[in-house]
# Entry
Amino acid sequence: MEQTNLTKSRLAEVLALEKITAKDLEQLDPADQASLGETVNKTLHQLGGAERDRYLEKIDQIITACTKSDIWEHNHRLINDVVSDYLMRHGAMPPKTVIARETGLSRQTVTKHLAEYKNQPEFAAEIDQFKFIAPRILAQVFRHALQGNIKAARLYFDMVGAKKLQQAATVINEQNNFIQINGTKLNQQKLQQLSPKQLQEIERIVGGV
# Structure
C-alpha cells in the first residue's frame, strides 16, 4: 500500500510539473509511465483552444514523433472539414475566428497550421496519395468520354495536354466506342498507345498548324 501511494505521489508530481521531460519519466516505473500516457491522451481529448495549446507545450518533450504527426493530422482534418463546409455554404474562405470556433482549436493554432501546412511531411504524404490514384481517375474520365460524354472528352484532352485535340474533337460515337476527330477515328486502344509527342503531332495535323 505504501509503495502504491508513493508511486501515485510521484505520478502526481510529474503531472504537476510546468514542463515534463524525458528525465522526469525516469522516476516512474513502466506501469506508471503507461498510466501517464493514458492520462495525457485523456486530457488532450478534453481540452480545447489555448488551454490545449498550453498542455501540448507542457508535454512536448515526452510525446513521440508519431503522436505529433497524429495531432497534426487531427488538426488538419478538423480545419479542412470546416473550410470545405463554409465554402459550400458561403462561397468564400472562412475567417480564422470561425475556423477556431468550429474546430475547438485556438486561433493561434489555426493561423500556424494554415501558414505552415505545405511544409509538413504529412501534407506531402497526403498529396502523394492523390497522385497515386490519379491514373485511375484519368482512366475513369477516358471511359466516360468513350461512352459519349462530351465534357469528359474535353476534360481528358485537357488533362493529357492535348488542348487542340480538345477543340477539334467533334463527334464521340457511343455505339462504335471511338472518338472521331475530323474524320480520324481513335479508339481506346490507339489513344492509350500514343506518346505525348505523337499527340502533339496529331494536334498539328488536325489543327492545321
